[in-house]
Structure formats: structure tokens, C-alpha cells
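seq as requested:
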Amino acid sequence: MRKIMALLVPLALLAGCGQSAELKPRAGRELPVAPHGRDDRPSANALLEPQPQASPERSVELRSRSEQRKDDPFDLPPAG
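C-alpha cells:
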């Protein structure tokens, strides 16, 4: 058991470190062409940022306490 822990702890620490330098394409490769209607090419970091459609804001507040559900007219039993 100690041998396993002695192996897992350094691997977990190694997994936590990473490169934080600016991203660049590999040697001999280029970034994708500019999207249609845009004059400049977005950078690698700009391409990694999620678009607003990818992570929309919540439009409904979460319930803070238990409440009775209203009757749902579309909650029908399966056709049988």
C-alpha cells in the first residue's frame, strides 16, 4: 500500500503542473483562416475563450425552498 501511495503522490503533483505560456501553433502549421466577414485572424487564446452561446447565463432563479408543483397538462402517461 505504501509503494502505491509513494507512486501516486508524485504523479498527482506532476499532473497539477502545466505550462502557462501563450499558445502558439506547432512548427509548420498555421492558425485557422479568419471567419467569414472578419478581416483579422483571432489569436489562439481568443479561439479558446467560449462564446456567449456556449455558456449562457441562467434566466431562471433556483428555488430556495420546497414548494408544491403546479399541475402540468403535458405530463401525460405513456400511450399503451
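The mean pLDDT is 80.
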